[in-house]
Amino acid sequence: MIRDRRNEDLDRLCDLLSELDDQAHVLGTRPPRDWLQEVDAERSWVFDQAPVSAAPTRNVVGHVQIYLPPEARWVHDVAARTGRRVGELLVIGRVFVKPAKHAYGIARYLLKESVKHVETRGSLPVLDPADLALIPPSLCAKLGFRELHTEDHTPTPWPGQSDPQGPMTTDFPLIS
């Protein structure tokens, strides 16, 4: 189940990050705990395999955050190319799941729920290009995210767009 992240979850999440092959590419020299706390997130969720949410458990196997876009050129490029204001974008990032049998399904669930939350707010969900190494590329495509090449990050996936010159319809909002 998805629940709000608690401070007590941070040690477990740092352990999970150490199990990921691409974590060094994403974190650079930042300590995992700092990376998890460096953005002022609107939502920080974990996927906890325990059936109750009374206390943090060692069963936390996934993580996602939703936050306002950073001050970066790619954010302005995405806004311009989508016809949206920067304030209408919400970034989905810090997505990672423990490598295991059901990791793909858990990542899919975390992303789908994040997109629902963002769209409920009337915003456009954008994946943080700095974190893409932790998300299976096939999952991004399956959920309707498309690449948008920008000046300082390429690619920048976002849903519903395959050609940066104009929108296309997608079944992404219909995913239940």
From TrEMBL:
InterPro entries given in the database record: Acyl_CoA_acyltransferase, GNAT_dom
Residue segments, region Disordered: 150-176
Domain spans labelled N-acetyltransferase: 1-173
Gene3D superfamilies found in the cross-reference section: 3.40.630.30
SUPFAM superfamilies: Acyl-CoA N-acyltransferases (Nat)
Source species, domain of life: Bacteria
A GO molecular-function annotation: acyltransferase activity, transferring groups other than amino-acyl groups
Protein name per its UniProtKB record: N-acetyltransferase domain-containing protein
Source species: Actinopolyspora alba
